[in-house]
From TrEMBL:
Lineage: Eukaryota, Fungi, Dikarya, Ascomycota, Saccharomycotina
Native source organism of the sequence: Ambrosiozyma monospora (Yeast)
Domain of life: Eukaryota
UniProt protein name: Unnamed protein product
Length: 503
């Protein structure tokens, strides 16, 4: 339906979002990605092939000219959700996130491109599968990968100079270095690092308000120190710094674990630089089993436990009860997707804490005895961040723009009035939530002088003047958002007169 009738598709999903989002997005998308080559019917999105880097420009050119594209989602398929390397099938995550940019972020569906980079795969099942449609060789690393990425970015910025770039589900090897390099070059963000960091910081802020605690009194254990885990750690540090902590003080309140256990400062040769910046002192942990989550919790006495480890069931009864022993209101976020990979299910976390835990999950879950379980998913942040960057014509997406998104999302938490209502606004109003987040991002970009929207001629002609007050700006944002409504059929020469928004 999405391919044949976009108005019908987006209006249907909007009206039945709770029922249909899990089908077009998490968790079902995981199955669709894994089965990509077997279910393939017709191509969708832009396929870029590392064996043919010279074709990048021509392949992108099929999607339009400079004025036509606002937003590009790209994945190389190496770190799809918690199901790992899915090779070329990863293009479907770009398609799903691009669809959410329209559904939740109000971008015109024709102005968003989903891109898949085929740089090989290390997934043995795919390499041995005669139906696998991608390149059948191990992932290309190092210089050849870097040159391919550079060519992609160069072509993209030349051909679509106004486009915002969204990186999705890159593996831990490339995700952060690629982001660090290119965020200085074009407006871009990595959803798993920054989008996830933002949504978790927002729900944590709401949970702290509900329980009347201060952010700086938090101790956080992050179980799974990959893209998401370290993105969450960074966002918490950014927020602690805005509350007066130094970077070092803030980092000392965060304890990260990966498959080797707690990250310690004597593991530097095997940790990434980002992991190392959160390392605990090995000397202080001597004699303690740092591979045991329970033992780590016993020593740290965390107020917050975040799971992004892909390890189903890792938050056992003993883990949760140890959290509860040290905290009357523990904050517990099992975030690994898809659903079957959650570190625990909300029902258990609530029962094991006599319903005192504040729980939000990565995938959708039904309410437990009247307690709404918010979906702590980056779908609450990336559409608003992306829309804000597009509408403001931001030249960069700064940390402070992301922090503005966090504060705005947290302010809309229904849990602050009644904690049983969940930490994040309900899915039914996600387009409204995204408009609020976009407004906060735009106002911040204008304040920082990185918004070019008022300097350029608008596509509808004339200069735009963006209201500086929140309500006025939000009204302007909503006017720009694409709505799934059938438009009248008219003669081409009258098109200008029915433009209701700027596209
Ligand atoms: N809710 C959301 O919005 C959201 C956003 C991003 C990622 N995620 C989920 O988080 C999970 C991780 O995603 P990612 O992109 O960070 O992946 P990643 O591969 O970058 O990181 C996974 C991390 O888990 C660690 N790990 C593996 N086994 C472990 C174990 N036994 N104990 C402790 N740590 C272990 C790995 O060492 C690695 O550091 C996925 O399931 C993904 O779906 C959720
Ligand atoms: O895709 C999602 O549901 C969220 C997130 O980006 C993930 O990788 O799990
Ligand atoms: Mg992702």
């Amino acid at each position: 339906m999405r391919q044949q009738n976009k108005v019908l598709f987006y209006e249907l999903v909007r009206r039945h979002i709770r029922e249909l989002l899990p089908i077009i997005y998490t968790p079902t998308e995981g199955d669709a990605i894994a089965a990509y080559s077997h279910r393939f019917r017709k191509p969708e999105g832009c396929f870029l092939d590392i064996t043919d880097p010279d074709s990048i420009d021509e392949r992108l050119s099929k999607f339009g000219e400079a004025k036509d594209i606002d937003y590009v989602v790209v994945s190389d398929g190496e770190g799809i959700l918690g199901i790992g390397d899915q090779g070329m099938g990863g293009i479907r995550i770009s398609i799903a996130k691009a669809a959410l940019m329209t559904l939740c972020g109000g971008l015109h569906p024709g102005r968003v491109i989903a891109v898949g980079l085929d740089t090989g795969t290390n997934n043995k099942n795919l390499l041995n599968d005669p139906l696998y449609m991608g390149n059948k060789f191990p992932r290309v690393r190092g210089e050849e990968y870097d040159i391919f990425m550079e060519k992609f970015i160069t072509s993209l910025t030349k051909r679509f100079p106004h486009a915002v770039l969204h990186f999705e589900d890159f593996g831990v090897i490339n995700g952060r270095p690629v982001l660090e390099k290119y965020r200085k070059v074009l407006p871009c963000f990595n959803d798993d690092i920054q989008g996830t960091g933002a949504v978790v910081m927002a729900s944590m802020t709401a949970a702290l308000k509900i329980t009347k605690r201060e952010l700086l009194d938090s101790q956080v254990v992050i179980y799974g120190a990959g893209s998401a885990g370290l993105g969450i750690a960074d966002q918490i540090v950014n927020h602690m710094v805005t509350k007066g902590a130094t970077k070092e003080e803030a980092r000392a309140k965060i304890h990260c674990m990966d498959r080797r256990g707690l990250i310690l400062d004597d593991m530097h040769d095997k940790s990434t630089p980002a992991q190392q910046s959160y390392a605990d002192s090995a000397a202080e942990w001597e004699g303690i089993d740092t591979r045991s989550l329970v033992d780590v919790i016993e020593k740290v006495k965390p107020t917050v436990l975040v799971g992004c480890s892909t390890q189903a069931g890792a938050f056992t009864e003993e883990v949760i009860k140890t959290m509860y022993k040290h905290n009357p209101r523990p904050i517990i976020f099992p975030l690994s997707n898809p659903t079957r990979l959650h570190e625990c299910v909300p029902e258990d976390a609530l029962k094991w804490t006599d319903f005192n835990a504040l729980v939000a999950t990565g995938s959708p879950f039904k309410p437990v005895e009247g307690h709404v379980i918010s979906e702590n998913n980056n779908c609450f942040t990336f559409p608003g961040i992306g829309l804000g960057a597009v509408l403001s014509r931001a030249t960069v997406i700064s940390d402070t723009m992301i922090s503005a998104a966090v504060d705005q999302l947290a302010a809309g938490s229904p849990g602050i009035a009644d904690y049983k209502k969940g930490l994040l606004a309900p899915l039914e109003v996600i387009d409204e939530t995204s408009a609020q987040v976009a407004t906060a991002v735009i106002l911040q970009a204008l304040k920082e002088g990185v918004a070019k929207v008022e300097e350029e001629e608008s596509p509808a002609g004339g200069k735009v003047s963006v209201p500086r007050d929140f309500d006025g700006c939000m009204k302007w944002v909503k006017e720009q958002m694409w709505k799934p409504v059938y438009r009248p059929m008219i003669k081409v020469e009258h098109v200008d007169s029915i433009h209701t928004h700027q596209y």
